[in-house]
Automatic annotation (TrEMBL):
Domain of life (superkingdom): Eukaryota
Protein name per Swiss-Prot or TrEMBL: Uncharacterized protein
Length: 142
């Protein structure tokens, strides 16, 4: 399934690749395109397993926008964090999931989403390893 998601991400990337290559478009506009078109598509359905792949994908897109920057690793990190006002995809994923958790916590238990967060599952537990729940991932991210 991860490969299928990566193929969709690559399709999104290649659909806007000619825009990212264009010298007529400013870098600020390219960053806005990355934030509004590519990043939400990449983050859709991502899990903790693909963190390294997310980082590689983001590096590939930013290299396409800014060109290779191979002087030092710290130079790229400073440029990435300070000048671009971008967070890594993993940080964006955590921020969005925390925002959603706060939204769900404000809901009452009668609504569907609030009920899923509040309820305690009953019945027998399956024999194998317990499945990860969304709430467990939130606790791990904190």
């Amino acid at each position: 399934e991860i490969r299928r998601i990566l193929n969709f991400r690559n399709a999104c990337y290649f659909s806007v690749q000619n825009i990212l290559f264009s010298h007529l478009i400013s870098k600020n506009l390219k960053i806005k395109i990355y934030k509004t078109i590519i990043l939400p598509f990449v983050l859709y359905g991502c899990t903790l397993r693909g963190e390294h792949r997310l980082q590689r994908f983001e590096n590939r897109v930013l290299r396409r926008i800014f060109g290779p920057m191979r002087e030092e690793d710290e130079v790229w990190i400073i440029l990435h964090n300070d000048k671009l006002n971008l967070y890594s995809p993993n940080t964006v994923r955590v921020i969005k999931s925390m925002r959603w958790a706060g939204h769900v916590a404000c809901m009452d238990g009668a609504r569907g989403v609030g009920w899923v967060l509040v309820r305690k599952p009953g019945g027998k537990r399956p024999l194998r390893r317990p499945r990860y729940r969304w709430e467990d991932n939130m606790k791990q991210d904190q």
